[in-house]
Amino acid sequence: MRAFGRQEQTADEDVRALFGQSTAVFAKFTGPAHVVETANAAFQATFGENGQGLGTLLDEVYRTGEPRTDRDVRVVLGSGPHEREVSFDLTCEPRRGATGEVHGVRVIGVETTQVKHAQRLMAEHRALLEQIARQAPLAEVLDGMARCIEELAPVELYVSVLLADPDGLHLRHGAAPSLPAFYNEAIDGIATGEGVGSCGTAAHRREPVIVTDIATDPFWDDFRDLAGRAGLGSCWSTPILARDGSLLGTFAMYHPAARAPRDNDFALIRVFAGTAALAIERHHNEVARQAAEARAESARAALAAAVRAERELRAEAERRADAAAELTTRMQAAAAAQAGAPHPELCQLGGQAGCTAAAELKVADSWGDSAWGCPAHVEEVLIHVRSVFIAGEELGGLAAYLNR
């Protein structure tokens, strides 16, 4: 129960980290020129000291005297490579004097950027869980997971999933839709071990490995040129583990520039690494189930073949018994006929159909019955009738049989 409680607590913390701490902004403006009377630090950091980008909204509220709420107001922060777009829900209210005239505007807002991203990510996460539940192909689930993270993350990143070989000594390509093909081919089959990039080391250690700068980290000595050609600056890798602790693979997030993770990044990694573990383990279970069914079907087929063979052998034995009985009858009939003709000219073992071949060999059984026959019919008797041997004066019959 304690372990379950800790897992539940970690999951709650991950969700809180994904949705983040919303930034609240507040400011008071005076007069039609919207002079800032007071503003908190978050407002100044976002909109500047003069409320940049809010002029049209402030003008309308000041002119109409009616409050207004705008959702998903987009604001661009920073410039160049550090430029990013954020969104706010803003409420603007008129400020009135003692006589009711509008003399300014009050602005209250909450940043919704991270919440919007997290909501979309969690919706995609639910869709992935539904895919896993209906046993969609593993490659489809992993590829879809990678693409949704890349498309919805607030910064540019590339997701990679590597799958562990059964022996846990090598990692194979699982999904990496946005990494160059030459890069995926080069790392397909890399060994797990200390210092083998971020993923090989994470798989070996069974713990996350955060490389914030590929250009300087010793783990990437053997792969630095490859990463440079692929335009990769950082790589954070997390082992994907089964419920019993065995290695299933690695989940990695690459960025085009050197970058250190924040709390919401770690939460995102844990959530989707767990999803990948669920998908991979479900896939392994399904493969094992299919293999067991195939073995069972093979065993059933082998048993059916054995039963058929046993029936055929039994039928053959019955045919041989019938043939032996018939040949015995022939010998007994020939023995009775031999009393009148000790050495007949023609074979006596041809049965009702008769035989026109010369009687060359004499056979006898343990009960004293004997008959003359041609070599072919004598050989048939020797094979099918027990206790039968070639008989003859001075072994003449046996010699003729051996020297034919």
TrEMBL record:
Source domain of life: Bacteria
Organism from which the protein derives: Lentzea pudingi
Annotated protein name in UniProt: GAF domain-containing protein
Keyword Ion transport: no
Record keywords: Coiled coil
Ranges in coiled-coil conformation: 289-327
Entry keyword Coiled coil: yes
Domain named GAF: residues: 137-290
